[in-house]
Amino acid sequence: MADAAAIATGVVKRFAPDAPPALDGVGIEILPGKMTGLVGPDGAGKTTLIRIIAGLIEPDAGEVIVGGRPALDADRSQLGYMPQRFGLYEDLTVRENLDLYAELRGLSHDEREERFGKLLDFTDLKRFQQRLAGKLSGGMKQKLGLACALVRAPKLLLLDEPGVGVDPVSRRELWAMVRDLAGEGIGVLWSTAYLDEAEQCDTVFLLSEGRLLHSGPPRDLTATMQGRIVRLDVPEKARRATLRQALDHPAIEDGTVQGDSIRLMLRPDTKAPEAQAIGGEPGRKLRKAEPRFEDAFIDLLGGGPKGTSELAEHYPLIPETGEAAIEARGLTKRFGDFTAARDVSFRVGRGQVFGLLGPNGAGKSTTFKMLCGLLTPSEGTGSVAGNDLRTASADARQSLGYMAQKFSLYGDLSVRQNLDFFAGAYGLSGSDAKQAIERAIEIFHLERYLKDNSGGLPLGYKQRLALACAVLHEPPVLFLDEPTSGVDPIVRREFWTHINGLVEKGVTVLVTTHFMEEAEYCDRIALIYRAEQIATGTPDELKAQVGRPDATMEDAFIALIEASDRAREAEAA
């Protein structure tokens, strides 16, 4: 116990006398020099546990020791804490935020220059000292949050989902930074929804509904899945339908698209079905694959959703018109002398998923907003469902459902009130509105939260509510801007079950994502970097450019960005 940076034993926390416990007898140990992962579905109790360890709230029962002292009396100068939501002052510059945290942490003026210099070099923020924090990209915001947590070198660093909303390049950089800190002897607790990050931790604690389900090295849990993971090669055009059919088979507990195949988890003590029984082509066979930590996580929580989407089952078939469902023609947007998007062009047919990928600040959301009619292009034009953005923007907006990158519903309204409001905003009334709302409540499992203000919902339910509002009027086109950012893998699968089902009904989807495995579901992808469209093609075409048969979408993402940087450097030389 004396060697631990922090240790919690039998922690219980309720937020109301008659409420189920947010934490129910949880124990955790964070060792110096080690990366400790904290994972679990939305609402599992991760943030509550971190806040208790940080001494921000008091447990109802149990003991929490930090640095040898009770958490509420611990030496705060030895603790670094980075909350889940960006907690800095957006109207202060990078340097001003650092100065503020130095004042709060009692760092003398003599110590600041040396400490700030190290932190700014460490996070590569030296070039941005005078930029307002609110104007930083998602990745840079997280790096600034980390720098502020490290203003005084701590012995314990608590990071609550630092990778949420951060692109793969920035996420790798952030992970490398924190791993280096652990190498200096700091005890790190890293809460995450990205299970590839959890897989790299020294020890993982897995929470669900306030209870601890597993603790130990991630490889120990992964090893329990040996023999239960299989792959089936499927032609690109058939992957969506084959995955749906496979997930509805009683022998299959979970599945995803992975490269040129679908990857499936068998139920315990179940024989693998024949490939043809789950939609495979004649002659194809299931072959064994290596398990991952995410497989064990999904299994421990009871498996993923079925393949058939209830939302899609109730959705009307979108007729083929012969026109592009979404088209961008030379879209450019300038804000003063800053160009946020330059000459973006693509065409998306009915019943396709088109992905916009790129680092934070690349111009994806700007392109989105131009096509939604929320921003007027500086140059170029586009159309949605046959409606020109410049001449029929109101009709274009009525033809689409939009889910913003940040939760954009009314936080002070209840779930029911938000549904009522958006039904009216989309022109639904009377029995049509009532039926649409009741169906959304059932499909997205919102019953228990109907009277709660939407701003206080767990993140997964916020995202469910946002998608429910976007599809109330059954639009033929959906714009989804990072719809699964920060949610756990099961909710992520649930979302893609709905998206894939809607696409089979003829709905067209434009989506951005930082989860590269989600990009595999796209029919085509445009990669945007530094406001420019640097590559366009199918997932297989983009991966082929890496030059390795085993390349992943993350490999392709990073390789194409690095190639673009080299081309810029050569051009400038």
What sort of overall outline do the alpha carbons produce when their principal axes are compared?
Answer: globular
Helical content stands at 25-40%
Mean pLDDT: 90
Range of strand content = 15-25%
Rg on CA atoms, Å: 24 Å
Show the helix and strand layout.
Elements: E1 6-13, E2 23-30, E3 35-39, H1 46-53, E4 61-66, E5 69-70, E6 79-82, H2 94-104, H3 109-123, H4 138-149, E7 156-160, H5 168-183, E8 187-191, H6 195-198, E9 203-208, E10 211-216, H7 218-223, E11 229-233, H8 239-247, E12 252-258, E13 261-266, E14 287-288, H9 293-300, H10 310-313, E15 326-335, E16 338-348, E17 353-357, H11 364-371, E18 379-384, E19 387-388, H12 393-398, E20 400-403, H13 415-425, H14 430-443, H15 459-470, E21 477-481, H16 489-504, E22 508-512, H17 516-519, E23 524-529, E24 532-537, H18 539-544, H19 553-572
Parallel strand pairs: 3-8, 3-9, 6-7, 7-8, 17-22, 17-23, 20-21, 21-22
Antiparallel strand pairs: 1-2, 1-4, 4-5, 9-10, 11-13, 11-14, 12-13, 15-16, 15-18, 18-19, 23-24
Helix pairs in contact: 2-4, 3-4, 13-15
Task: Give a brief rundown of this model.
The protein has 573 residues and is an alpha/beta fold.
Describe the protein.
With 573 residues, this protein is an alpha/beta fold. The protein has 19 helices and 24 strands. The strands form 5 sheets. Strands 6-7-8-3-9-10 form a 6-stranded mixed sheet, sandwiched between helices. Strand 15 and strand 16 (338-348) form a beta hairpin. Helix 13 packs parallel to helix 15 (459-470). The radius of gyration is 24 Å and the shape is globular. The N and C termini lie far apart (57 Å).
